[in-house]
Amino acid sequence: MRKQYSLISVILSLFFISACTSSGEIHNSARNQMVTTFYATVESMQEVEFESHVEEGAAIGAIDGLLSNAYGDSRDRLFGAMWGAFFGALVTSIVEGDTDGYQYQLEDLYGDNHTVILEDSKATVGDCVLVTVSGVVDIDLVSDDYCYE
């Protein structure tokens, strides 16, 4: 029994240590890519909603629930379709996660405007940010000194 606890604690320790080492790594989409960076000021920011497929998940679940109860009576088919729709929508919603995002209007040092859409709110209007463009776009807050000459 003591050996089992030791093995479990070693596995959990390795799991937690490996989770800590992933911070600060370069995103996989940056492999074999030209990466562009520039400084910009956030001119405006607005919330956006990413598309969701919950309706499709509900429809597929309803069809599955209906077909799974095809040989039952009408009540079985109805409840099968309802529960299938519920679980299809629930699973789809969990897999998709949060569908809220943010659209930033940025102005770089040369006066060029850029639009960036991100999942997380990392900056507010007036902030100076370092924009990193590879396969994925990311922004990081930096000192205002970088944005004003």
From TrEMBL:
Keywords: Signal
Region forming the signal peptide: 1-21
PROSITE patterns, sorted: PROKAR_LIPOPROTEIN (PS51257)
UniProt protein name: Glycine zipper 2TM domain-containing protein
Record organism: Brumicola blandensis
